[in-house]
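Aim 2 progress update. The chain analyzed this quarter is reproduced below.
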Amino acid sequence: MSTRPRWKIVYDELREQIVSGKMQPGDKTPTEVDLIDQHGFSRPTIREAFRRLEQEGLVSAATAGIGRTVRSRDLITWHLTKFELGAYTDDPVNRVDQWEADAHADGWQTRQVVAGVAELPATAQVARYLQCKPGTLLLRRRRLRYVTKPQVPEQLAMIADTWTPLDIADMTIDGVAPLREESNVVYPGGIYRALGFRQVQFSDEITVRMPEPDEAELLEQQPGTPVGQHARVGVDASGRRVRVLLSVFSGDALRLKYDLYVPEHRPATNGANKPAERNS
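Predicted structure tokens:
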């Protein structure tokens, strides 16, 4: 007789089918009733097996009328060394920006939705990024970035919030304030360059945390799954911080990629790079 807990017998069986590819992303899992009949175990035992699979990100949570499905493990790669540095061409005609062009290069199909444009008080975090006082009224422009592939159901890859000082948000191009537009707007080189701002420095910060309730709902987070947050602050030639882009994504869905080139001659700092002395 097996000494494994009953839930683990069911968990191991389903996990092996998913990992081996017998069940593909998007496939429906056996129902709780099917597994109860197959194993003769109680419903709480079957649900514990599913709970563990959900925590691991292998299956979706149960949905009325649909049940549970196998989740995609095809990670979305975000090439941050290239992002916003001219490696991809904005396409204003088809409204394809740098992020979508990057995703297309990796074989993803994309859909981007502007989910809200609103004047909101700066949180403590946003105020730190933009070097303003907490509570300062700023414009937040929220975009939802979706991706899909053949055989991979569409998923929300990222919540992208751009926070901007109001004087910049009110600037216009041909009578239109693009940052206040509630539809997808694309300009060659990006909106800020089109407005006359040359961002000469990006300051990136990456954190991992548990999601806010609205983030968990939008991203359809599995219980216990953290989110990653990438913050990019844009600094113009005068040293002003003209915007911060906060991108939030499910911690088990996205891969951030940087290529950092090491100079041939690296300056020594506080003696840390000096060769170790040998004992005579």
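Residues 15 and 21 are 10 Å apart (CA to CA). The first helix runs from residue 6 to 19. These observations will guide the mutagenesis experiments scheduled for the next reporting period.
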